[in-house]
Amino acid sequence: MSSRDFVHPCMSCGACCAAFRVAFHWSEADDAPGGTVPVDLTQSLRSHERAMRGTDSAQPHCIALRGTVGEACECSIYELRPSPCRAVQASWEHGSADPHCDRARTRYGLPLLTPADWIA
Ligand code: SF4
Ligand code: SF4
User: Which of 32, 39, 45, 106 could form a disulfide with 27 if both were Cys (CB 3.0 to 4.6 A apart)?
Assistant: First the structure.
């Protein structure tokens, strides 16, 4: 595979956006000074928190996720996404496995990423 053919594995996954509750401090929403996350895509959670709509559920699925998990996905607010989303890293992209990535992919029956997935 040449680097020109490399497609980031997240683009055909999206599992972590449909596996966990995505909760963060209310000040990350854009109705607070400096906040970025569109508040209409969030809901109140505990006193100091908001969550991405769709994720505080037994079968989480973030409202901002476009596409089909395991096929083709993208975050519709990628540049504005909250801190928990920025914290998840695709396993082995930076040299180690990420437990959230692994758990999410397992939940959808997707193979865990390996170092070989990053050889371009
Ligand atoms: S971080 Fe992992 S689970 Fe999340 S979209 Fe990327 S490959 Fe999928
Ligand atoms: S905000 Fe974007 S990156 Fe975060 S869970 Fe939703 S779709 Fe995924």
Answer: 32
Q: What are residue 68's DSSP bridge partners?
A: 72
CB atoms within 10 A of CB 83: 12
State residue 100 phi and psi, 5-degree precision: -70, -45
Strand 23-25: give its sheet, edge to edge: 23-25, 49-52, 42-44
77-112 pLDDT tens trace: 999 999 999 999 999 999 999 999 999 999 999 999
Rounded to two decimals, the pTM is 0.93
With a 6 A CB cut-off, is 69 part of the ligand 1 pocket? no
- Give the span between the Cα atoms of 3 and 110, in whole angstroms: 23
Give how far Cα 19 sits from Cα of 35, 39, 47, Å. Answer: 24, 21, 23
